[in-house]
Amino acid sequence: MTDKIFKLFKINNLQYNARRDPQPYRRFAGEPFRIQAIIDGHEITRITLTDEKGKILAQRDLCGPATFSHELTFAGPGVRIVTLSASQSGRNESHDLRLDAMAPQHE
């Protein structure tokens, strides 16, 4: 049994790496961010996605191995941090994901 619940994160169908240049993950305001997390294990796992203020944006119970998927859209530009958390048989794991929404370009 591994210590990690999450096996992989994706934003906009690209594997997420916090050390990578954030440009490939960016979207213009009004365009959706697609967040995916692949979970490990063969137990019921509660996945919760929260914003910077702790507001629950999405919550699902999945039986692993499985993929959590959720789309978010922000009306205005800015950097947001969302937290993806998993709880499975008394184990907990959380990861912060940076989402950059850019101002729309005017022609």
Structure explained in plain terms:
- This protein is mostly beta strands.
- 0% of the residues lie in helices and 60% in strands.
- It is built from no helices and nine strands.
- It has a five-stranded mixed β-sheet with strand order 3-9-8-5-6, with no helix packed on it. Strands 2-1-4-7 form a four-stranded antiparallel β-sheet, with no helix packed on it.
- A hairpin with a 5-residue loop joins β5 and β6 (56-63).
- The radius of gyration is 14 Å and the shape is elongated.
SSE layout and pairing:
Layout: E1 6-11, E2 14-15, E3 27-28, E4 32-39, E5 44-50, E6 56-63, E7 66-73, E8 78-88, E9 91-102
Parallel strand pairs: 3-9
Antiparallel strand pairs: 1-2, 1-4, 4-7, 5-6, 5-8, 8-9
How many helices? The count is: 0
Q: List the uncertain runs.
A: none
Q: What fraction of the residues are assigned to beta strands by DSSP?
A: over 45%
**How far is the first residue's CA from the last residue's CA?**
54 Å
Largest sheet, spatial ordering of strands? 3-9-8-5-6
What structural class do the secondary elements suggest?
Answer: mainly beta
Helix and strand run: EEEEEEEEE
- Basic shape: elongated
Q: What can be said about the biggest beta sheet?
A: 5 strands, mixed
Number of strands: 9
Indicate the radius of gyration in whole angstroms: 14 Å
Mean pLDDT across residues = 91
What portion of residues is helical? under 10%
Summarize the structure.
The protein is an all-beta fold and 107 residues long. It has no helices and 9 strands.
Name some characteristics of this structure.
60% strand, 107 residues, single chain, mainly beta, five-stranded mixed sheet
